[in-house]
Design goal:
The protein contains 4 helices and 31 strands. By secondary structure, it is mainly β. Bound molecules: CU-O-CU linkage (C2O) and copper (II) ion (CU) (2 copies). CU-O-CU linkage (C2O) is lined by residues 109, 111, 152, 154, 285, 414, 416, 461, 463, 465.
């Protein structure tokens, strides 16, 4: 029986070992036993396009992966956690064959890519049965932004289980912005963050109804499948961390003990200029890129703090939904004689001022968790139905959406295909500096976004990226015509 498959008490947050998550919202720490603590940082495998093309096969399968002195049950692409990093350029054609060796249906979504949602492209209505294979063909437009994106399964009903099982990988889009000497000389590290439940059989994927409603969180926090990996670097160099929140529900509040950390990109690529960030919140589905100049010898650590993301029911009667595990995610040993660090780029790219754009249409979306049963997670009062179109948009328009969270826990709202900017928010968080595809809507608050519906028509979805909530129905269908 899997350790993580056991529901603990009525509140149902998994975690049997004493150092596991606590239910009171106070931080707990990553278990220091059982995992491969302090392994050498090793980047995910990588495949890179050449001459405008990349062809890759991913095999999704259940596997035992190394864990401490033993092994643990996981779902993997090509045997690894995460799956291989796909490195492409604007204008590229990515031909990806997914073979399903799982015992449940699956499919693939390229989260954040601005590509067609139709046909063999980023079409989440495709279903690949166990034993079957399917070939996707993704064509990136010539002006696709560079940045950090990711891929994961999207078969409604099993998304949380498959992703928390381990099915995720990074996609890096590079363009001429990456030729800036400050980027070329930086030490790039891909950091795919996840928090699986640890155990030795498929029961790690089964969680209680309460855990689903709160959004499942795991027993440990991993970086590229490792517990607190260690890297080495020289003084005078700059680290570029491409960070993906691939957890089903866990929020990360990232900070570093380095002299400074500068955000250079969010979900949809580079910001206008680097921003000094003491800490940065990364909700499920979101990405962030930060640069960290290494100015003194010693260690530099990237860590995440506990995040209170609300609760369920009257007076939190269903328990809190805290992302309770505080953990070190990466340690860099910095050595060598002291040298000056090259400057960060002064500016990165011009960002359109969306406030000056003409809004063609306004809409509101209400996120709600109604009642106590399954299927109670709704957008505008409706639970997901793949056969119903909820929102029809005219192509080549700009819409302003007000997304209001009427429930008692946070929901990260995600829209496929068409990027947006955050115009305003009532939760007091800093206005988002760049283009996004996922925005956290705090409990009881609202966020106003402007979405640019350019380039692609077709049918796609928007949903809560707490993937249990998506599986429970907090998803709608959008058709751009
Ligand atoms: Cu990363 Cu529809 O999701
Ligand atoms: Cu997506
Ligand atoms: Cu949600």
């Amino acid at each position: 029986m899997g350790i993580g498959g056991v529901a603990v008490g009525a509140f149902g947050i998994a975690g049997c070992n004493s150092s596991g998550p606590r239910r009171d919202g106070a931080p707990s720490t990553n278990p220091s036993s059982g995992g491969d603590v302090g392994q050498d940082y090793s980047p995910p495998e990588e495949v890179r396009s050449a001459d405008g093309r990349l062809e890759v096969t991913l095999v999704a399968a259940a596997t035992m992966v190394p864990w401490g002195s033993g092994s643990r049950y996981a779902l993997t692409y090509n045997g690894g956690i995460p799956g291989p990093t796909l490195r492409v350029r604007p204008g590229d054609t990515l031909t990806l064959t997914l073979r399903n060796d799982l015992d449940t249906p699956t499919n693939l979504h390229t989260h954040g890519l601005h590509i067609s949602p139709s046909g063999r492209s980023d079409n989440v209505f495709v279903m690949i049965e166990p034993g079957a294979a399917y070939t996707y063909e993704y064509v990136l437009p010539e002006d696709h932004p560079s940045g950090t994106f990711w891929y994961h399964p999207h078969h409604h009903g099993v998304v949380a289980a498959q992703i928390s099982g381990g099915l995720a990988g990074a996609i890096v889009v590079e363009d001429e912005l990456d030729d800036d000497p400050a980027f070329r000389s930086a030490t790039e590290r891909i950091l795919v963050l996840s928090d699986p439940q640890v155990g030795t059989d498929a029961s790690v994927l089964d969680v209680s109804a309460a855990q689903q409603m709160l959004g499942r969180e795991g027993d440990v926090v991993l970086t590229n499948g490792q517990v607190r990996p260690r890297g080495v670097a020289k003084i005078g160099t700059t680290e570029l961390w491409r960070i993906v929140n691939a957890s089903a529900s866990k929020y990360y509040l990232l900070s570093s003990d380095a002299a400074s950390m500068h955000q250079v990109a969010s979900d949809q690529g580079r910001l206008a200029a680097p921003i000094h960030v003491p800490q940065v919140l990364v909700a499920p589905g979101q990405r962030v890129e930060v640069m960290v100049p290494l100015v003194v010898a010693g260690t530099v650590t990237l860590s995440t703090a506990a995040v209170d993301r609300g609760g369920m029911g009257m007076g939190g009667g269903m328990g809190g939904a805290s992302s309770a595990i505080a953990a070190d995610l990466l340690v860099i040993d910095v050595t060598g004689p002291a040298t000056a660090v090259g400057p960060l780029p002064a500016s990165l790219r011009a960002l359109d001022d969306l406030a000056a754009f003409t809004v063609d249409r306004r809409r509101s979306f209400t996120l709600g968790a109604m009642g106590m049963g399954r299927g109670a997670f709704v957008i505008n009062g409706k639970s997901f139905d793949g056969a119903r179109v909820d929102t029809t948009v005219a192509i080549d328009t700009i819409e302003e959406w007000t997304i209001t969270n009427e429930s008692m826990m946070d929901h990260p709202f995600h829209l496929h295909v068409w990027p947006f900017r955050v115009v305003s928010r009532t939760d007091g968080a800093d206005p988002d500096p760049g283009w996004r595809d996922t925005v956290n809507v705090a409990a009881g608050h609202s966020v106003v976004i402007r979405v640019v519906f350019h380039d692609f028509d077709g049918t796609a979805v928007y949903h809560c990226h707490i993937l249990d909530h998506e599986d429970l129905g907090m998803m709608g269908v959008i058709s751009v015509v």
